[in-house]
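Might you be able to review the protein record set out just below?
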Amino acid sequence: MLKFSDLTAKTHRLRLWHVIGSVVVLSGIVLGSYSMSFNSKQLNLSCQAKLYQSPFIAESLPAFSQTLALDVAIEANRAKLTYSYVQDGQDLAALIYRGKVSALEPGTMTYKLNLDQANLKMDLLQTEMPELMRTEVQKSRKALFEQGRMSFNMQIVDMDSLNDYVLIKFYPSGHLWACKSH
């Protein structure tokens, strides 16, 4: 014979399982929405590197202010990298790479980039290309002619969203850039 106390005990167990199940489902929803809030399909970074003259140069050269800038824009599976050379606040030359993001490894936050187009943009009054840009253009031209594309990885090494700071590293070159995210 079924007693009333047995019936209420089973109801309490059933309610406990409902509560546990609800907590698990809600936790899954919260964690899923949190992971989706970092949109790996879109990334906009601005990076700058200030260039200095070597203190070991024998002759005295006039002071100069030179900067290398890198802007990274990834949206869906498209990538655009703009590598600029700035002197005394004026853009002298920029090398603009375009291509595809072939993969994203979420565990290491590494984007696999295949860039198949490179365009050079220069100031019309600039008589010759800066040496740093010339070297980059030669490497890019060689890779595009020989392989039809430039393939490399870009890894997000560190990210501080509170201070708007992202540290990225390119492989195989090993170049490290400190950036601000947009």
